[in-house]
Amino acid sequence: VITLLFGIGDYTMDLGIRPTATAHELTYPRSRVVLACRARRLPPPIDGPVLQIDDEQFFAADSIRSRELGFQGRLVIHPDQVQPANRLYAVLDDAELLELRAVVAAFAQAVEDGNASIRVGGRFVDYPIYHQARRQLERHLAATTQSVTSPDEPPEENS
Known about the structure:
The chain is mainly alpha-helical. The protein has helices spanning about 10-15, 25-40, 55-70, 80-90, 95-110, 125-145, and strands at about 45, 75, 115-120, 125. α3 (about 55-70) runs parallel beside α4 (about 80-90) and α5 crosses α6 (about 125-145).
């Protein structure tokens, strides 16, 4: 098993649920899928498709909700959904990029100086936060094919 996938269509059909614009009816099952991946130390899950092919606003809103719950991406059922999905799950805005680059650079320097936890912009940063920031930057770079200079990976945490 690499990760899990939430089958929105199957789930709602099996229970006779019609997905709404707010998708509140999907919050609990989506959360369970995310937690199951975390419990098994799997990468974040993939969310199911948005069936409303021509509703770009719904697609964006639902994808943002999905990302905020912990999904790393989603299945798409139409070619017009590919670019928006890549953008919504991976592309960071300028403020997020600055914040994540600051975290990565400061933590790499801290590790070089012999520290395994620091404060960056009022936020506690240690190995898990650093690794998350690196993953987010890598996904952003892959989605935008930009080249960004980032510090070398600090050594692995000593147990």
